Amino acid sequence: MTVFALLVSLIAVSLTAADAATRHRATSGSSSAACATTASPDFGIDLAGGDWRFRTGDDLAWAADDYSDASWDSWTVPDDWGRSADLSTYDGYAWYRRTFTLPERPEGINDSSIIAALGFIDDADQTFLNGERIGETGSFPPAFDSTWEVPREYYPPNGLLHWGAVNVLAVRIYDGTGGGGFYKGPVGLYSKAHLRELSGPTGNAASARQLAHACAVLGRQHEAVAAGNLARYAGTLDHDFFHQGDTAARRLADVRRMMAGGSAVVLHDDQAEVLVDAQGRLVVDTIRRWQSSDGTVLSPPQREFLYIDPHRRVELGDHSRFFRDSYRSAAMHRSVEFNVYLPPGYTRTTARRFPTVYMLHGYNGSNIEWEARDMDAVMDRLVAQKHIAQSVVIFPDGASGWWVDSSAGNYNSMVVKELVPLVDRVYRTIPDRNHRGISGVSMGGQGAFTIGLKHPELFSSIASHMGALSLPPLAGTAEEQAGHASLEPLTLVHSMSARQLRRHSYYFDGGSSDDFGFGQAAIQMGAELAAKGIAYDYQGGAGRHEDAYWVPKLDRSFALHSMQFRAHPIHRPHEPRRRSPAYTWP
3-state DSSP call for residue 564? Predict the structure, then answer.
């Protein structure tokens, strides 16, 4: 029996290659299946532009492919309601419809290998293709959940697309506050290969031998997980494995927990495509999911790029320095996410420890919004050009909970009691207050002041960008909000002694045209601190309540944290001798 026949029962992935010569089939009895493919064809239909129809309001009948939208407004996508005179103050439902013709089906393409990419939508959406719902992100009232920062990628089922004929895309959206609409692309129907060209790893098609290597590694992983053999699964991971924050030890601990659940664990890789990058690594573009044999989803499907050493046939990990992490929160009674930025020196060392900055987002935000801002590139530039201290930066998810404990969620306890000790345990941080700062934007600026001032044992530097310093936390019931009135940062600072306030260093800013008056609040904060003889760094100037005002000032806030960290130098441990890595990582 060939190696491919052995792998048939282990790997079930979709075949999407255009060139049949690159396909590797396996036969077991009378069945035939594909292990993996070199890549899908480079196919894309760009749906951005002025051929859309639009109207406000809401009626699910508008999802039908035979509905007539001739009376609707002609529209251009992407759009930005915040810059539209008619929609800048509108919060509510709206629909977009786009009628388009697909070419005849290209060779090697099936519907499930097409990704409907809809860019970024403010705030929530449901998307329909030819009358059938293909995905949704966020949620509508009464359980409104803004997901403006989450990229939309939906997967049409086989048989839904009308090749060589007319198709209709209908998008129902709800805007709950600010902005609105499609504010960023790409928008269209694309193969995975095309999306990789837009954003992702690139490379050449894998050879037959390289495909066999990729299949062998995936097959060993699937077989080991199904058999509950943790040691065998460990053998598929490189000693220096690092993937989305997981070391080999941490990944094995997660798999061990899944295996302890009672049911067998099944690892799936769907629509796997293999390419070879410039350094010779095998890159598997796959939709990976973990579930138990009874169908319970242990980790939902998500697109991942798996890097494999073709010589040693082990998974290397992606060695990413900006990624989402998660844990099961007792405070929130659910799994919660947070994003992590690791500085350049983190993955180049094994013993060195780093200071930490906690960055709190604003109202209707989440940890994912920092991905839309390319915060890893921003931080790398600050390190390289502004010489800020290399720091681990943690981006928690505070939803719209104002970073306090209330019926809306125990966000204060999540950060203070869970996230700080978790981060110090999992990552190589310097676990003391002198090397831990807290920053925030808008609602997060208020949270930085309230959490920082209330927990001097944890944080030594506080920074606020256009923060809500003149408001109390507006989370929970009216009674809860009244109970939090003393946490208004201006009130809190006024109530504290100079001795208490000197435990921290401070930075804050606010634009003179801030939409919520937070520029004036920053001036008031300066007056409160000055009256007590407390030093601070303040920056005002022209600007509204928007990224264009505060993002350019990150160098000032991180300079404050850096000054605090550098004022308390620590001994750097000797770096153990390491074997030279076979590959380099960004």
Answer: helix
| Secondary structure element (H or E) that encloses residue 42, with its range | none
Q: Over 60: is that where the pLDDT of 4 sits?
A: no
Pick from 279, 297, 275: nearest CA to 288:
297
Q: Are strands 537-539 and 505-509 parallel, antiparallel or unpaired?
A: parallel
For residues 88, 92, 441, 390, the Cα torsion angle rounded to the nearest 10 degrees is -100
The helix or strand, by DSSP H or E, that contains position 355, with its residue range, turns out to be: none
The continuous run of DSSP H or E covering 209 comes out as helix 208-227
Residue 458: which residues within 8 A CB-CB, separation 6 or more?
Answer: 416, 420, 433, 436
User: Hey, which bits of 459-536 come out as E strands?
Assistant: 461-465, 505-509
Q: Which residues pair with 440 in a beta bridge?
A: 360, 464
Residues listed for the chain: 586
Render pLDDT for 214-270 as a digit per residue (tens, 0 to 9): 999 999 999 999 999 999 999 999 999 999 999 999 999 999 999 998 889 999 998
CA atoms within 13 A on the CB side of 543: 20
**Separation CA 347–CA 340 (nearest Å):** 13
Cα(80)–Cα(87) distance, rounded to whole angstroms?
9
Average pLDDT over residues 178-200: 86
Whole-number percent of the chain with pLDDT over 90: 74
Rounded to whole angstroms, how far apart are CA atoms 404 and 476?
Answer: 9
Rg (CA), the chain: 26
Quote the CA–CA distance of 251 and 237 in Å, as a whole number. 9
Q: For the segment 66-88, what is each residue's pLDDT rounded down to a tens digit?
A: 999 999 999 999 998 877 778 88
Q: DSSP state, 429?
A: B
Do 404 and 450 meet the contact criterion of CB atoms below 8 Å apart? yes
Other beta carbons within 10 Å of 292: 16
In this structure, what DSSP letter does residue 404 have? S
Does the pLDDT of residue 303 top 90, yes or no?
Answer: no
- Judge if pTM exceeds 0.85: no
Closest CA to 326 of 240, 394, 271: 394
Residue 281 carries which side chain, given as an amino acid letter? R
